[in-house]
Amino acid sequence: MRASLIQIGVDPDESVENRRARVAGLVREQVGADLVVLPELWPVGAFAYESFAAEAESLGGPTAQAMAAAARDAGVWLHAGSIVERGVRGEPTGAAEEGPLYNTSLLFSPDGRLERTYRKIHRFGFDQGEAVLMSAGADPVTAQLPGAVAGLATCYDLRFPELFRLLVDAGAQLLVIPAGWPARRREHWTLLARARAVENQAYVLACGTAGTHAGVEQAGHSIVVDPWGEVLAEAGPGEQVLTVDLDLDRVARTRADFPALRDRVLGLPAPRG
């Protein structure tokens, strides 16, 4: 599998419409890739909280339409990062009349169909920002790609290993993680990406943003890690495309040669005090 991670610069002086068109053009340039991955909330910026409500879209909105067309034109599977999704009115979340907001990832097939969506489960911000503006997703999501099952996660999810265990138990061999990770915690980004690869014996494709938006410098440093924890490719801090050829058989070989997943002990009792 050939995977291309497009590390997008989110410039506050660039309109959402112009960025959407520019990113669609970048996707179209990835002809020959099997899978293309974009970052989290690239249309608006992961920390641009004040713009979330105004820029919220439906699953059939302008970003989804533009990315569906770009995936179709390039003939690629496209993980289009995530959008601020405006949910359907009346969903059981206690949200306002317009419907709840979600941080929602979109996965398109090479014919432009929206094959999977994933609403981010772990929202960042503690008692502010995304944590209070967005509703939480409820369900882990996997998707069958050519030659591998992908598990979907987003940014802050990376800190919660139990989610990735669920994805692996559902068959995931490839973990796709768009993010808008801040530069001040870049070392955590690299460390956690490698940890999720090692403990799950799976490829990790973690795609971040570049630039500074809402006053928050972004880490960049998108990274591809193999099932043994080796870094196959890592971007710098600026806008960049990483293209890597993945040997999908390496997942099965790693799990057979070092069968740590087989030795998991589940259902342990609570610690004794």
Automatic annotation (TrEMBL):
Record key words, sorted: Hydrolase
Tagged with keyword Hydrolase: yes
Domain of life according to the entry: Bacteria
PROSITE patterns associated with the record: CN_HYDROLASE, UPF0012
Residue intervals of the CN hydrolase domain: 1-248
Pfam families: CN_hydrolase
PANTHER family for the chain: DEAMINATED GLUTATHIONE AMIDASE (PTHR23088:SF27), NITRILASE-RELATED (PTHR23088)
SUPFAM superfamilies in the cross-refs: Carbon-nitrogen hydrolase (SSF56317)
Name of the molecule in the record: Carbon-nitrogen family hydrolase
Molecular functions (GO terms): hydrolase activity
Record has Ion transport as a keyword: no
UniProt family annotation: Belongs to the carbon-nitrogen hydrolase superfamily. NIT1/NIT2 family.
